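User: Fold this; tokens only.

Assistant: Input:
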Amino acid sequence: MSDVIAAMGKDHVSYFDWNVSSTDAALSVQKREEIVEAVRQGALGKPNIIVLFHDMDKKNTTVEALPEIIQNLKEQGYRFDVLSKDSVAIRFSQL
């Protein structure tokens, strides 16, 4: 991974890892409640988060979980934004 990070830096490429898993890939269709709880627990105590979600036809519970996840994260004080060169970069090498 350190070689990949170095090569990306040389090419001035920004990249972002994730630090909260929704666990929606644990099963072909994860329970909505499990996804909500995984994100809620995973975000606790972290100043910045990037949540890993998967996009597939079968992942309908991921979409169903989003309204509750968004509400919960807002209640925890998080805000939502697009990733840009000025965003805090979450990197596995720093975790």
